From TrEMBL:
Residues 46-91 form the F-box domain. SUPFAM superfamilies: F-box domain (SSF81383). It comes from the Eukaryota. The lineage of its organism: Eukaryota, Viridiplantae, Streptophyta, Embryophyta, Tracheophyta. It holds the Pfam family FBA_1. It comes from Datura stramonium (Jimsonweed). SMART domains: FBOX. This is F-box domain-containing protein.
Length: 418
């Protein structure tokens, strides 16, 4: 090694070990190896040090729960600015999606005999217990007479609230308690309309899809973008008819959003059941094919079939109730590789007395699946897992109707999106 190279390495090591105020004490001036003067170089090094500290602080804070970060906004103006920054919110959401402690169950309960409605938040992590269940305040300044959770995305919920006179459409973040009122679609909401809520990475915008159930042979398709703040009509898919079971509950399940597209079950005249996809970015329809045994339309009057998402994978499920035997059968399939028909895999089958309907909600790390189950002898729904009781959620009385969505806690503000 030449003497010049050795001297350069010695200077570099001293430079790495020194503080800003120690630059003047180096025998060989570091700035001599740059095109900058001493003052300019010290300013650059100071800026680099501040940036490095910000990155370290951001990495630490982005792994903390939302409740802590909301309190930390009061520490200083700098912390408030950092935590409120859109880049930090996206970084935090990216970590939260892979953190079991950031996964929650939001449950809305209403009484059959009273004008009572409550909303609760329940942890899904195995290390958190029933005692961690929180009662949440409704996002408006009045106690609603009715509330329905349509769908959620990135910790934001799209819901309707009825005050006795009017129905209000809201976007709500239960983690930060922020909410904003959304305009109504161009066509009035029907009892059988279905919604989907997803994020368009191409335009960095959130979008809501609404499809009305068939009124005769006509179906209304509308989409709402948060940046524009308005609804507009979109072209229909004329090749596939949307499947609407005759015995469906008043509002169907929400559209499944995965791989940048909404998905729902449809029927074609030549192949039976299929999965319709609608790209949220370019608004193009597609199709995800089912296996032959899944496409069979026999027994359509007896089955409740739908499309959902579990662990980022598209899933197909059916519930069949045998009235004579008073027994229900639930089957769950997942698509391990999106778009590949052969990757459809049946996870499990449940046969149980009185089991009339099942909706999968969440897949735990150990493979168990959280299920929302309806039984022939009860009014409300019961949360349980594919292997038994769901210990994190206390079961309610038979006269209480409850619905729930699993979500990831986030800092995304609905107020700033509109």
């Amino acid at each position: 090694m030449s003497d010049n190279n050795k001297e350069q390495m010695d200077v570099d090591q001293k430079f790495c070990d020194c503080e800003i105020n120690e630059i003047d004490e180096l025998k060989t001036p570091v700035y001599a190896f740059t095109s900058l003067g001493k003052d300019a170089f010290k300013a650059l090094l100071s800026a680099m040090e501040i940036h490095l500290k910000e990155e370290i602080l951001m990495n630490i804070l982005s792994r903390l729960p939302v409740r802590s970060l909301v309190h930390f906004k009061c520490v200083s103006k700098f912390w408030k600015t950092l935590i409120s920054d859109p880049y930090f919110k996206k970084k935090h959401l990216s970590h939260a999606k892979n953190d079991p402690n950031s996964q929650k169950l939001l449950v809305s309960q209403s009484s059959l005999y009273k004008d009572d409605m409550y909303t609760f938040c329940c942890p899904l992590s195995s290390v958190q217990l029933v005692e961690d269940v929180q009662k949440l305040d409704f996002p408006l300044n009045f106690k609603p007479l009715g509330c329905f959770l349509f769908c959620c995305c990135d910790g934001l919920f799209f819901l309707s609230v009825y005050d006795g006179l009017d129905e209000h459409l809201l976007l709500w973040n239960p983690s930060t308690r922020e909410s904003t009122v959304l305009p109504h679609p161009e066509r009035p909401c029907r009892y059988d309309c279905t919604y989907g809520f997803g994020y368009d990475a191409t335009s960095d915008d959130y979008k809501i899809l609404k499809i009305d159930g068939p009124n005769g042979y006509e179906m209304s398709y509308e989409i709402f973008t948060l940046k524009s703040g308005s609804w507009r009509n979109i072209d229909k898919n004329h090749n596939v008819i949307m499947f609407v079971p005759t015995h469906a509950i008043p509002v169907m399940d929400s559209f499944a959003f995965v791989h940048g597209a909404f998905h729902w079950l449809g029927i074609t005249s030549f192949s039976g059941f299929t999965v319709v996809s609608f790209s949220v970015s370019n608004e193009v329809y597609g199709e995800v094919t089912l296996l032959e045994q899944m496409r069979d339309t026999s027994g359509i009057q007896h089955d409740r079939i739908a499309i959902s998402v579990l662990g980022g994978m598209l899933c197909y499920h059916s519930s069949q109730y045998n009235c004579q035997q008073e027994e229900g059968t639930f089957k769950l399939w997942i698509m391990k590789e999106y778009g590949v028909e052969e990757s459809w895999t049946q996870l499990f089958t449940i046969r149980e007395p009185g089991l009339s309907s099942v909706i999968p909600k969440y897949r735990f790390g150990n493979g168990e699946v959280l299920l929302s189950c309806g039984y022939s002898w009860g009014y409300g729904l019961i949360f349980r897992t594919s292997r038994g009781k769901f210990g994190s959620w206390p079961q309610c009385d038979a006269d209480i109707y409850q619905e729930g969505f699993t979500y990831t806690e986030s800092l995304i503000s609905p107020v700033l999106l509109t």
